[in-house]
Amino acid sequence: DAMVIQNPRYQVTQFGKPVTLSCSQTLNHNVMYWYQQKSSQAPKLLFHYYDKDFNNEADTPDNFQSRRPNTSFCFLDIRSPGLGDAAMYLCATSRDGLSDPTDTQYFGPGTRLTVL
Amino acid sequence: AQSVTQLGSHVSVSEGALVLLRCNYSSSVPPYLFWYVQYPNQGLQLLLKYTTGATLVKGINGFEAEFKKSETSFHLTKPSAHMSDAAEYFCALAGGNEKLTFGTGTRLTIIP
User: Fold this and answer.
1) How far is A15 from chain B, CA to nearest CA, in Å?
2) How open is the CA angle A75-B48-B75, to the nearest 5 degrees?
3) pLDDT range class, residue A2, cuts 50, 70, 90
4) Which of A57, B38, B41, B70 is a plausible cystine mate for B88, CB 3.0–4.6 Å?
């Protein structure tokens, strides 16, 4: 059974046209993460939510925003996509921020964003 | 400060040969260490993790890794490579701040 679900799997948008990527989870985890991954690179953390608390990485561009309306869902909004924003976007969850040995970060299948 | 170094961005092995992917870490606190695998156009799948206790950790698909504190290493091994092992492998560290620090990844190619 899918635990971290991302929709759509492939998204095409136009330069400058806002786009929203969706993530949902069935694990009831407190923490949800958004990563950007470019070709042949490691995932780069954009931000994460611990419950309703939003934590932005210092180098995340203002063009990227996020919403978490409830425990299960988290959205990534790209306000004005540029060509450089074409990438795989990965959502992940953890129960309590990897604070104990039984916790793990689980990843969704990703959304590949193309910007035309 | 925490960091993860994966030696070798590309590794090629023959089918049936030993797989060895290297990972070294730096952490100011006792780390939790992870290996993830990523197949093309997919998310990251957990292979195995070390938190505390036994230093030899067994994971899925026949992989294992050994935590060596004295060498600050967490190398991933598999005795006999299979074609289906071809993928990107990431070593990662959790150091108590809710986040994972990733290595740059190693692309594993299996030669028939």
Assistant:
1) 22
2) 120
3) low
4) B38
Average pLDDT, chain A: 94
Closest CB to B90: pick one of A42, A94, A101. A42
CA-based nearest residue to A94, from B94, B31, B57: B94
Among A48, A104, A109, select the one facing B98 at the smallest CB separation: A48
Q: How many residues does chain B have?
A: 112
Q: State the residue for tokens 């990843």.
A: A107
User: Which candidate in A54, A88, A105 is best for mutational testing of the B interface (most B CBs within 10 A)?
Assistant: A105
Phi, psi (deg, nearest 5) at residue B62: 80, 5
Residues of A in contact with B103 (CB under 8 A): 42
| Tens-place pLDDT, residues B61-77 | 999 999 999 999 999 99
